[in-house]
Amino acid sequence: MSLQTAFEIMMMVTSGCALLVSGWLLWQSQRQRDLIALAGFGLMMALWCAGHVAIFHHLTALGVMLVLANPLMPTFFLDFAVRFVNRGVARQPWLDRLERSMGLIYALSMAVVLLSWWLQGGTAVAVASFHQFFVFSSSGWFNLAYSVLVGILAHGVLSWGFLTHQGNRRRSIVAMFVSGGWGLLLATSFVFPSLGLDTYPYPMLLLPSYVVVLVYGVVRYQILEVNAWVNRALLWVGMMLLILGVIALLGALAGQLGMQALANVPGWQLWLYSALVLVLAALLYQPLNTLVGRLVYPGLKLDQLLLDRWRNQLKTAQSWDDLGVVAQSLISHQLGQPVQVRFLGRYEPSPRSGNDPCIQCRQLGGAWEFELLDWSDITPALRLTGEVFGSLLASSCGVLERSLMLAEAERARLAEQHLVELGGLSAAMAHELRNPLNIIAMAAAGADAETRGHIQTQIKRADRLISDMLIYSGKLTLQRQPIQLQAMVQALLVHVDWHGVRHELAMTEGLEINADPHRVQQVLVNLIDNALAFIRNQADGCLRIEADSHGVIRLHNNGPALPDELATSLFRPFVSKRPGGSGLGLAIVRRIMEAHGGYIRYRADLGWPVSFELFFAAPAAAQGDAADIPFIAAQESSL
């Protein structure tokens, strides 16, 4: 094969690759408009290479015109660079002006091309191994200088983008610089004959790689699926090179091994036959793979459309119950038989299996994993379907978990904001209400004793309501310290007006919790006062306070049991059946307990009509580090 033939083949391959890439970029430009300009760059690259081929085939005038159209190639690249860079933080007025001026730059580039044609800026002469090769005439150097100037401007824009952009866009710019340097190294030899150097332009034989490397460097961070295509392409190229090496080795050893017929076959024919076999294998791979899959997994009906439908429907779930219903419906419909779907916490034991197959998802080590239970009688095709679906379901569990955590964080933020607003409103109301209450109290001083007593009672009630509102809506600041629980409770009980109510205290001496002592007293006083309001008039009224070794405090009383409808809303503000109560006592208790990272809950299953259970979390758990508290808090949030 002559050097001219090799050069011609490489130019044709480069032109074909550029045309294919340009078509693909135009297709992708529906999602990314700036790729249109890059497609134009590829088209001009294809025409430039076609110009060299035309010269070899004695179409000199056409070939010279195509090569002299070179200024349009860097102009398209400049257009792409401006559109690619002029976004977000890199957007600048001078780039906006340059983008608006691209029409004028295209017109100027076209004018340079037309002027080069008119002045006959190029011709074809015999050089090195070529019977004809393009060279610039004296007037054609302006064409080359203009092309270089536009290319420098484009790379200047990319430099600005590199300094201002971050992430994938910056990585794409780096890839453009690397591929641009590679292209400059390859194309520089094109001007050697014009400089009087009688040298064969060997680097241009690698030009097919330039356009592919450039486009891949640009889009690999923007259109992620292109990486899978390139992965397959490199695999086949590697296999082609491997076959080339094997054929070369066989050609060298065939004569010595007695395979004279093989030794007499030209090496290029052996390589061509092997390449055709490889291409045929590539074309038959997918149909054969499908056929084998149907033989091994008969009845399997999995395709990308089905997977996308599953994925989209699983995304619609807004809660764990929704996800379970959607998942169970999808997989049961696909398998044609009932399938159970379960979600388990990290330490939750697996329930007993039923008769139906089950997909069980569990959170392990921060990730969700799935397990197929009772699938032993399921056919291999349906089991593979279950494994694929289980993998999608586990991913959906992670997405839903993060979504619910974000929603809960937003709810907490809005609740905190609401409390801040309520605190300001409560403070203003307290100031405005207490002034007229003081005036009423002073005006009542001249009334008779009975009237004055009634007025004073109602004023105290109003003042207590105002104080409770300020406590509930105010900001809770905790001053944690170790508290000897038994000593604190004993000191507190001394000051309680029991009115004949029997009280019991069952605590281990030395039991210690880490909490704010003032807030703990506030919690206990509210709960004791609330209980006494109901059992003070009972002949056998009894209040018992106990704590276990874990610091869980329980307050029991034998007052009337709470109705079910009241138990579900007990800790909400302004919910109370206590005579004269504000309805904020238990709501304040709950706020204090949650500020400690703990909880309060009402229980009627401890042998007493009414029981309240308090848990003060350790400081680390109060910051969200305890693993078990979220499950308890989730239960309590429904009360």
Descriptive overview:
- Helix content is 61%, strand content 10%.
- The protein has helices at residues 3-28, 35-56, 60-68, 72-85, 93-100, 102-118, 141-164, 167-187, 207-219, 225-253, 260-264, 267-296, 304-315, 320-335, 380-443, 449-473, 485-494, 517-535, 564-567, 585-595, 619-622, 629-636, and strands spanning 122-127, 130-136, 340-344, 358-364, 367-373, 481-484, 502-506, 512-515, 542-547, 553-557, 599-603, 610-615.
- Helix 4 (72-85) packs antiparallel against helix 6 (102-118), helix 13 (304-315) runs antiparallel to helix 14 (320-335) and helix 18 packs antiparallel against helix 20.
- The longest helix is centred in the middle third of the chain and has 64 residues, at 380-443.
- The radius of gyration is 41 Å and the shape is elongated.
Topology:
Blueprint: H1 3-28, H2 35-56, H3 60-68, H4 72-85, H5 93-100, H6 102-118, E1 122-127, E2 130-136, H7 141-164, H8 167-187, H9 207-219, H10 225-253, H11 260-264, H12 267-296, H13 304-315, H14 320-335, E3 340-344, E4 358-364, E5 367-373, H15 380-443, H16 449-473, E6 481-484, H17 485-494, E7 502-506, E8 512-515, H18 517-535, E9 542-547, E10 553-557, H19 564-567, H20 585-595, E11 599-603, E12 610-615, H21 619-622, H22 629-636
Parallel strand pairs: 3-4, 7-9
Antiparallel strand pairs: 1-2, 4-5, 6-8, 9-10, 10-12, 11-12
Helix pairs in contact: 1-2, 1-9, 2-3, 2-4, 4-6, 4-7, 7-8, 8-9, 10-12, 13-14, 13-15, 14-15, 15-16, 18-20
